[in-house]
Amino acid sequence: MLDYHIHTHFCGHAVGSMEEYVTRALELGFGEFGFSCHFPYPEGYVFLVPDCVIPQEIFGEYLKEALRLREKYSGRIKIRIGAEFDYLGPDTSFHPLETARYLNLDYCIASVHIVDGIVVDYSPEMLRSSLAGYDGGIDRLYERYYETLLLVAAPGYCTTIGHFDLVKKFNAFPDLAPSKNHSSLADKVLDLLAQGRTVIEINTSGWDKPCREQYPSLDILERAVARGIIITAGSDAHSPEEVGRHFDRLRTILGQLGVRQLARFEKLKALPVDI
Q1: What CA–CA distances, in Å, run from 174 to 138, 151, 171, 178, 183?
Q2: Helices in 158-235 by DSSP H: which ranges?
Q3: Structure pTM?
Q4: 136-150 per-position pLDDT tens digit
Q5: CA–CA distances in Å: residue 15 to residues 10, 20, 196
Q6: From start to end of 204-268, where are the E strands?
């Protein structure tokens, strides 16, 4: 197996050295995995919550350590180097694929954590507080989330879409669950991903969140597979112990979907690997 969504202490909200993550991947028998720490926010951007991304001044250290480990463990495990880019709006966001190409990364995950100034995944308390003055409430937030994801899913924007339906993280709380079905908007995003041959990840961290299911949901995954969208896997690990978490469940879902290959990455190219 492989795991392409790994964070480390460089992000500020994860723990463990990068080498500890490599050691854990080796213990699990992985042949390949990728570091994807959060790319720095642009200069002058106001942080809505603390310790979200790698500070600009130490991003080079992250890359240097990843390269060192790639060399040290060459022959034992393939270490890919990537980053997770947060979409911040048309005026403040990076172009992930262009930036990744400039930095010689292997892949780039694009994700939506913030919609209309609302952090959708930090805590249920923060979400409730933000929604108190938000016209349309949680249903409008879902709509705006997928409308934003349409921008991220544009062909050539990134290699991978991260945790596709992250907005559902706290939907176990009745007041934070939508009353409308937003599948038609999700389908528009899937159509763009299929058009651009952009990879979608199955992110297993959702099983440890209030929503208690992977990102994206099984029905979205079924529609993705029907469109021929390429799939990769990520644990969204924030500690070494979380590498490959719930991959037993992941294998079951892949079997249900009839998926026999996952995407691995090298120099921004998605390449198939048998499961």
Answers
A1: 11, 29, 7, 8, 19
A2: 183-196, 218-226
A3: 0.95
A4: 999 999 999 999 999
A5: 8, 10, 35
A6: 231-234, 261-266
| Residue 240, both tokens | 């070494």
Q: Residue 25 pLDDT > 90, yes or no?
A: yes
Q: Which of 138, 148, 142, 63 is nearest to 110 (CA)?
A: 148
Contact (Cβ atoms closer than 8 angstroms) between residue 192 and residue 150: yes
Q: List the one residue out of 178, 179, 176, 87 whose CA is nearest residue 127.
A: 176
Classified as helix, coil or strand, 4 is: strand
Q: Quote the distance between the C-alpha of residue 67 and its chain's center.
A: 21
The percent of residues above 70 in pLDDT, for the chain, comes to 100
Contacts of 183 (CB under 8 A, 6+ apart): 219, 220
Domains and CATH numbers, the chain: 2-274 (3.20.20.140)
Cα 193 from Cα 229, distance rounded (Å): 7
CA dist., res. 151 & res. 86, Å (int): 12
Burial class (CB in 10 A: 0-12, 13-18, 19+), 265: buried
Strand spans (E) along the chain: 2-6, 32-35, 78-86, 107-111, 114-115, 118-119, 160-161, 199-203, 231-234, 261-266, 269-274
Q: Distances in Å between the alpha carbon of 244 and those of 1, 3, 9? A: 9, 6, 18
Q: Burial of 251 by CB count in 10 Å (0-12 exposed, 13-18 middle, 19+ buried)?
A: middle
* Tokens encoding 222: 């079924």
Backbone angles phi, psi at 228, to 5 degrees: 80, 20
Cβ atoms 217, 256 nearer than 8 A: no
